[in-house]
Amino acid sequence: MTTAEHPSGPPAPPFAGGPGRVRPILPPSPAKNNRRRGGDGLWPWLFIAPLVLGIAVFYLWPIVQTVATSFTETGPFGGSTFSGIENYVELFTDPQLYRSLGNTLLYTAIVMLGIPIAVYLASLLNLPGLRFASLYRVLFFLPYVAMPTAVAMVWRLIFNGDFGLLNYGLGFLGIDGPYWISTPVFAMVAVAIVGLWSSLGFSLIVLAAGLKNIPPELYEAAELDGATRWGQFRFITVPLLSPSVFFVTIVTVISSFQLFDLLYAILGSSNPVLPKSMSLVYFFYREGFVNNDKGFAAAIAMVILVIIGIVTLLQFRFQKKWVQSD
Amino acid sequence: MVMAFPFVWQIIMSLSTNAEVQSVAPVFWPAELQWSNYVEVFERLPFLGQLQNSVIITVVRTLAQILFCTLAGYAFARMRFRGRSVLLALVLSILMVPSQVYLLSQYQIVQGLGLLDSLGGLVLPGLFSAFGTYLMRTAFLAMPAELEEAARLDGANPFQIFWRIMLPLARPTMSVLAITTVLWSWNELLWPLVVTTYSDRMPLSAGLATLIGDRTTDYPVVMAASLLAMAPVLLLFILLQRRVIDGLASSGLK
Q: Which residue ranges does UniProt annotate as crossing the membrane (chain B) (predicted)?
């Protein structure tokens, strides 16, 4: 079979690109084979129709609509009129945006402290001969799968300024603990401690899988060459684990920027401290569904989209470097 | 152990009296175990109705996602048709979009359909999942083509090939999808909060959240209620822990 006879390809022009450019002759792939026999006909459409319709109606169309809404003003009777970039101007001059962004960053920073802790714990879990390793895995993972609003209840008790366990413990150290949940910065710190607690298990599992993928021969060879424990950590563990660390970092940043559940559940919806302890998503929720300013809320959603987009782009940039932890 | 302590403390508090919970020097063990707190959960809160809502929402979404995502995932992985790559790219593009971007309009659609404060509205957008489609497509992509070829020569139509041959092979991935959907649906807060206003129409996640800030809160009853609300999913997790952990870790998505 020559190129010219290939049913789906045009005949190669004789001198188009010299002999080097002749199309390679490949064995027909099952796909093409399939198409020649009439393809799959209507079948694929039946298979994808429910999902694609659902995604189009409930996800794709709403995305388009939110972009449009962000350029409109919601009228008093629910109608909306085009208002250009007014929402964005209003948003970027609103100090609440920067406060919410700052709070979200503070939360993200504290939750990120969990990553070095997770690296340390993962290396402990990976030690040969550790007993109850799977029990530890379960214990660390439990907070990750527990309902945020349900665990928030007990954390509220622990953080209680009058009879909370945390301040009781701090009292022994001679520290007069604050009213965590009703003091602006401390409220966010409290929420972030819970966030760290609940996300630690996920990081730990991914990192432990990453550690398992490092061939033990490397360590044996290094030991023969007289490398110290620290040297092994520095020259084997760090470079080979860095893809997993990077992956965990990205996931943590993305989910931290979506902070809502824990904040809402720990602080409550009528807490006077909220404006000063709001996350970006809480700001969005308040404007969109409490104050009912859809256009303004849509503009906030766009800001969140751009931030997550930048983080995702970074992830793609480095994707070659991180290995899936299958 | 720091990780498990909040759960233990919650159990202890759920068995105490309100006075014991609020005593300034913590009472580490209640004078008398107050099992009646658990009975009061059902008497004082619309707990049973919310539990029922949570169960229905979670079961319906999980079944729907498994059905829709395996069908579409299979077609995207194994069938040839015009526009396939464009449609696939459109579906997967949602994975990168934070939920706030579609939430406003989803609310308006559900409102337009007259489904606010109803199970239909609660369940609706979560029936479809781009992530599930991605997950199932990956599973089907990894399967050997010989099986399909053999079945095709035997005269099986595409649906029979999918149903009898490929689907059984995809079972492990389907269980990962089921587990992630159950977890996500049971614990989800923002959507129920937005769609429902009456506490008896809410699922447990939102119902519990409404208890916060109530000054007259009966702490032990609230502790008991939140333990009961978490229990089904935590039990499921403990029973299937290896599969859940490996599944979530390898799917690499929240």
A: 55-77, 86-107, 119-140, 161-186, 221-240
